[in-house]
């Protein structure tokens, strides 16, 4: 499946992230001409593909569910750093930035990535099979985190507007970290089998029985790929930040809401996980796809809220976390539909279409609120 014999210096997946990092340094924080923007966009796309490749190498070495956890956490940590840096540098537009970005990540992962993965799996294999116990636990954690951090601020009364008081924000941060840590413990130690791929009969496919027969990479190869994965993800987020002024100008020229900028950047940042999830679904490893999607959604909330809670110490102005009525309806619909998808442990083309329909509604309402 994955070749390891070529020299490092001749691999595109090694060269592209390095070139992207070299390009990131002189382009950071500058107003770029059109040709340079095009080159940056190509390097961004190449870095996304390189990140997926190196994530698969690491996953092949450590096995599931550790492989999907590595990519989800790595992407989210860097995404959180991007959110905090944007909030610090934003000019009066940081009040809703964290909320808009986190909510966009939830919709992209729980509907976009899940729907696309189910679509690919059901078109190739008719029925997508996964472990309802593990996926159900992940979904319950996502729903709880999203409700506590994004819905409750709209209804609390200690502070005016859809914001937490300092004490409430501290509680939400601690609760988010605790729930995320408990989930990781369940996924990787106590109930690891619940998050492994299953066959059509519902039996767990342990690593020894997996269909990936290629020899596992060496420790050296794994360390190199892990380092290049982090480098590629840094360049993905960094180049997305470089491209953001172009995106902002395009959004403003088109007369679209400013929140669309956050959606576009979230789509770019989550591209590595999307491609990795789709590739897993093509191999009929839907459980791996769901681990990536729900794990990323959970990490996005569980790591972002504590980070902005700390950052709020030196950030001026309000921090609006509470969702509006439209977004709360979309979130509630997502939780209900996801529950009905997960409970049977099997999904068809219909479930894929429903999730993609919700995702399309989110994108349309972001453009036309």
Helical residues, percent: over 70%
Helix/strand-derived category reads mainly alpha
Q: Report the radius of gyration as a whole number of Å.
A: 20 Å
For this structure, what is the CATH class?
Answer: Mainly Alpha
Compute the number of helices: 12
Gross morphology is globular
Q: Mean pLDDT, nearest integer?
A: 83
The assigned CATH architecture is Up-down Bundle
In CATH, the homologous superfamily goes by the name: NCX, central ion-binding region
Q: How many domains make up the coordinates?
A: 1
Spatial strand arrangement across the major sheet: 1-2
Series of secondary-structure elements, N-terminal to C-terminal: HHHHEHHHHHHHEH
Q: What are the low-pLDDT stretches, counting only 5+ consecutive residues below 50?
A: 1-5, 208-213
Number of strands: 2
Membrane topology: Multi-pass membrane protein
GO molecular function: potassium:proton antiporter activity; sodium:proton antiporter activity
Keywords: Membrane, Transmembrane, Transmembrane helix
Protein name: Ionic transporter y4hA
Structure description:
The protein has 369 residues and is mostly helical. It has a single domain (8-367), classed as A middle domain of Talin 1 (Up-down Bundle). It contains 12 helices and 2 strands. It has helices spanning 12-27, 34-62, 66-89, 97-125, 132-155, 166-190, 219-253, 259-269, 271-282, 286-311, 325-342, 349-367, and strands at 128-129, 346-347. A two-stranded antiparallel sheet has the order 1-2. The radius of gyration is 20 Å and the shape is globular. Residues 1-5 and 208-213 have low confidence and may be disordered. GO terms for molecular function: potassium:proton antiporter activity; sodium:proton antiporter activity. One of its GO terms (cellular component) is plasma membrane. Keywords: Membrane, Transmembrane, Transmembrane helix. Its main location: membrane.
């Amino acid at each position: 499946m994955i070749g390891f014999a070529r020299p490092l210096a001749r691999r595109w997946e090694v060269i592209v992230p390095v070139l992207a990092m070299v390009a990131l340094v002189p382009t950071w924080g500058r107003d770029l001409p059109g040709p340079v923007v095009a080159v940056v966009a190509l390097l961004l796309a190449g870095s996304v593909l390189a990140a997926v490749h190196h994530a698969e190498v690491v996953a092949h070495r450590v096995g599931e569910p550790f492989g999907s956890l590595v990519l989800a956490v790595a992407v989210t940590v860097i995404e959180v750093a991007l959110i905090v840096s944007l909030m610090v540098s934003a000019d009066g537009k940081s009040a809703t930035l964290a909320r808009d970005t986190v909510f966009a990540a939830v919709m992209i992962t729980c509907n976009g990535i899940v729907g696309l993965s189910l679509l690919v799996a059901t078109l190739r294999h008719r029925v997508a099979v996964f472990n309802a116990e593990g996926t159900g636990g992940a979904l319950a954690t996502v729903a709880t985190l999203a409700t506590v951090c994004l819905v409750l601020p709209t209804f609390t009364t200690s502070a005016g507007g859809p914001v937490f008081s300092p004490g409430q924000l501290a509680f939400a941060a601690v609760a988010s970290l605790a729930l995320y840590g408990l989930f990781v413990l369940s996924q990787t130690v106590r109930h690891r089998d619940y998050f492994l791929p299953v066959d059509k009969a519902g039996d767990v496919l342990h690593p020894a029985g997996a269909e990936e027969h290629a020899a596992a990479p060496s420790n050296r190869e794994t360390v190199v790929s892990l380092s290049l994965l982090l480098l590629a993800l840094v360049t993905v987020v960094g180049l997305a930040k470089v491209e953001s002024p172009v995106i902002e100008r395009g959004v403003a020229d088109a007369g679209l809401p400013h929140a669309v900028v956050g959606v576009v950047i979230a789509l770019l940042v989550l591209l590595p996980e999307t491609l990795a999830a789709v590739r897993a679904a093509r191999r009929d490893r839907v459980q791996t796809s769901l681990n990536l999607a729900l794990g990323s959604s959970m990490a996005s909330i569980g790591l972002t809220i504590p980070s902005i809670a700390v950052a709020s110490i030196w950030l001026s102005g309000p921090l609006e976390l509470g969702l509006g009525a439209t977004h709360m309806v979309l979130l509630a619909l997502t939780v209900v539909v996801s529950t009905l998808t997960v409970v049977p442990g099997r999904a068809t083309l219909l479930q894929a279409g429903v999730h993609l329909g919700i995702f399309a509604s989110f994108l349309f309402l972001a453009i036309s609120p």
